[in-house]
Write a structure and sequence with these properties.
The protein is an alpha+beta fold and 268 residues long. The chain has one domain. Helix 1 crosses helix 2, helix 2 packs antiparallel against helix 4 and helix 4 runs antiparallel to helix 5.
Length: 268
């Protein structure tokens, strides 16, 4: 079976807490945000693929798998996106017509050969400046989208666009897996598809069930008994605003593959 290998880059988008509320509760806003993110990433890849500079933009396509995370490292509610993107663009070439007297072994071989010949891959050259441009563009378009959906007033969006240090928007694309590193790609996909709870962070200390949090905390911890850790209680999962409750509601978050559509045109 034809199994090509291409380099893959992880793109991560996080938005300010004020906007996470709407991503959590408005499916339309969630879908629009993801499509805008994918569209901007695709445009950046097209602009940074030297081999595709003379190609028709309509023939260039993105390859990506998106993961919607609804939790943070401290089991808090935190909607954000992890997207594994093939680090380049695919160009659709004119269809290749096979001769009727071809000596291929089977029709499936013919189809596979034609498909391989009608698509070419152009690798991208993404640097820090390109990532910064994606950040600025996504920030501008998302604020416009939230105004269009009635979640922000125009003057609030204008203020948020001027906040320093990214204004709570974060775009990271520092993880890149080389084409030949299939084990690295598997680790990345497993990381993106992970559930909220990590069993190796869950410990019992006496009568306490303790969960060690990740890099930082998006919300104050309910207990200071153990620094950087959560003390879970049997009733925690039944209380709507407790971290364990948020995590239990997001374990079934699906992994989705999305083509870049045209739903974000109104927000350009």
């Amino acid at each position: 079976m034809y199994s090509p290998a291409w380099p893959v880059r992880q793109w991560v988008l996080s938005v300010p807490k004020r906007l996470r509320y709407y991503l959590q509760r408005d499916k339309g806003a969630l879908n629009a945000a993801l499509r805008i993110f994918l569209r901007v990433v695709q445009q950046s890849l097209q602009a940074h693929c030297p081999g595709a500079d003379k190609a028709d933009p309509a023939s260039l396509h993105l390859g990506a798998v998106a993961f919607i995370h609804r939790f943070g490292s401290s089991l808090n509610t935190h909607v954000h996106f992890h997207v594994c993107v093939v680090d380049g663009v695919f160009e659709a070439l004119p269809d290749v017509q096979s001769d009727s007297d071809s000596d291929s072994d089977s029709d499936s071989d013919l189809a596979e050969s034609a498909n391989a010949a009608s698509i070419t891959f152009h690798p991208a050259q993404i640097d820090d400046a390109a990532i910064a441009a994606v950040h600025a563009n996504v920030r501008k378009r998302l604020l416009r989208a939230f105004v269009a959906r009635g979640h922000l007033e125009s003057h609030d969006a204008k203020d948020m666009a001027g906040y320093a240090h990214g204004g709570g928007f974060s775009v990271d694309a520092g993880v890149r897996i080389e084409a030949a590193d299939r084990a690295g790609l598997e680790r990345l996909l497993r990381y993106c598809a992970r559930p909220p709870f990590a069993l190796d962070r869950l410990k019992q200390r006496g009568a306490d069930l303790v969960y060690r949090c990740g890099k930082g905390h998006a919300e104050p911890l309910p207990s200071s008994k153990y620094a950087g850790e959560l003390v879970l209680t049997p009733t925690g999962a039944n209380q709507p605003h407790r971290p364990a409750r948020a995590a239990s509601q997001t374990q079934a978050t699906p992994t989705i593959a999305l083509p870049v559509g045209r739903a974000d045109r109104a927000y350009r």
